[in-house]
């Protein structure tokens, strides 16, 4: 083998060994360093679990990360990422069909930066981590959690595609309200007790006094308390400006990292009107038992 080819093979071998050494025992997580990586190289990683963590110290070059195994899936999948600390030194992209890249985590993303992507059936499920140019890579760590869920639902409202998307704070249309009530991880009826803002996470936590649970998958909210009331905490982006308001609401949304995240939240009277119109027109995406 020519010396140059031998050197290349040795470098690739070092990268592969370094990557393998960083896996957790169950291959759900990976921790490694960019100091062993050649500039311009792309390390190949594969995590077999639907939940895990990645910690890339001193990012350099790039990594391609396959998530949830390499076998094609029959159903769509939703993957969400969340920084485990201030995200520094790299960007994370989701690979799409045809090789296109969709930005999920940017340089400097804070702890509240939950981002999601929906892959179609048989679409490769892979993330591309690219180091950003730095004069000094010391103290640079790109660390994030990921969560991948199968999704047999054929269609979702825009809010499901990314909690930080531009449309995440806008009111839902009547069609989106009905679709959200039929497809969300949770659907609860209740009143707003209060809203607490977390400027560090850039999130708001809405405390809801629950009067009825139409659906929750998985179980997100505790059972009824000793005083006969049931409480729920629902998160949304701080920039959405959530505030307490009178009346009863229908809260819909998704489970992300064990937390409830808000999708559509119409006043219950508004939702009931949209539901009655769709019922008369025989255009309901599903039937709900409303109080």
SSE blueprint:
Elements (H helix, E strand, L loop, with lengths): L2 H19 L8 E4 L8 E6 L3 E7 L4 E6 L9 E7 L6 E6 L5 E5 L9 E5 L6 E6 L9 E10 L23 H10 L2 E13 L4 E14 L13 E8 L11 E8 L2 E4 L5 H13 L11
Parallel strand pairs: 1-3, 2-4, 13-15
Antiparallel strand pairs: 3-10, 4-9, 5-8, 5-10, 6-7, 6-9, 11-12, 11-14, 12-13, 14-15
Account of the protein in words:
Residues about 1-20 and about 160-165 have low confidence and may be disordered. Helices cover about 15% and strands about 35% of the residues. A five-stranded mixed sheet has the order 1-3-10-5-8. The protein has a five-stranded mixed sheet with strand order 2-4-9-6-7. With about 290 residues, the protein is mainly beta. The protein has helices spanning about 5-20, 175-185, 270-280; strands at about 30-35, 40-45, 50-55, 60-65, 75-85, 90-95, 100-105, 115-120, 125-130, 140-150, 185-200, 205-215, 230-235, 250-255, 260. The radius of gyration is 22 Å and the shape is elongated.
């Amino acid at each position: 083998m020519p010396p140059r080819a031998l050197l290349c093979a040795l470098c690739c071998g070092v990268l592969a060994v370094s990557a393998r050494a960083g896996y957790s025992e169950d291959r759900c997580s990976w921790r490694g360093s960019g100091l062993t990586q050649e500039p311009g190289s792309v390390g190949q990683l594969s995590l077999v679990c639907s939940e895990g963590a990645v910690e890339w110290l001193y990012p350099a070059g790039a990594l391609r990360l396959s998530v949830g195994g390499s076998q094609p899936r029959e159903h769509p999948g939703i993957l969400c990422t969340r920084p485990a600390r201030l995200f520094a030194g790299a960007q994370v992209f989701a690979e799409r069909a045809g090789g296109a890249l969709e930005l999920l985590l940017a340089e400097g993303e804070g702890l509240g930066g939950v981002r999601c992507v929906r892959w179609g059936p048989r679409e490769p499920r892979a993330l591309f981590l690219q180091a950003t140019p730095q004069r000094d890579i010391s103290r640079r760590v790109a660390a994030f959690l990921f969560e991948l869920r199968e999704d047999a639902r054929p269609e979702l409202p825009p809010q499901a595609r990314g909690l930080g998307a531009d449309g995440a704070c806008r009111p839902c249309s009547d069609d989106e309200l009905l679709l959200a009530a039929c497809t969300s991880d949770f659907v609860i009826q209740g009143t707003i007790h209060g809203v607490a803002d977390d400027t560090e996470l850039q999130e708001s936590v809405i405390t809801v006094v629950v009067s009825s649970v139409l659906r929750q998958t998985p179980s997100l909210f505790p059972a009824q308390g000793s005083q006969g009331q049931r409480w729920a905490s629902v998160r949304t982006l701080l920039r959405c400006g959530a505030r307490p308001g009178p009346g009863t609401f229908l809260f819909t949304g998704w489970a992300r990292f064990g937390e409830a995240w808000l999708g559509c939240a119409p006043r219950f009277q508004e939702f009931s009107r949209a539901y009655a119109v769709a019922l008369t027109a025989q255009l309901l995406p599903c039937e709900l038992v409303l109080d």
